């Protein structure tokens, strides 16, 4: 690489400086069962200023029911990292979770896939 070393980490393509392993303190499995479709919502029991920045951002994102996939996308973190951190908030009573009841069935998803392939 060319240029001074201090410029190397300022490039947007370098990605986050705090690696996922650091965010989860090395944990790789969430303590709660969460799917990408699970909806999470803040309970208001824990103020965002009382937790680390990533957890605080999650609490802000979860003011309204939000899927785990959406939280993961907003944080730009892998789903497993998001699930581990959301599990912390669940364990602390800061968010609740539920599985949506209006999930499409397999036939609907296959019809959608077939239609997309026709495009």
Automatic annotation (TrEMBL):
<dbReference type="InterPro" id="IPR007995">
    <property type="entry name" value="DUF742"/>
</dbReference>
<dbReference type="Pfam" id="PF05331">
    <property type="entry name" value="DUF742"/>
</dbReference>
<protein>
    <recommendedName>
        <fullName>DUF742 domain-containing protein</fullName>
    </recommendedName>
</protein>
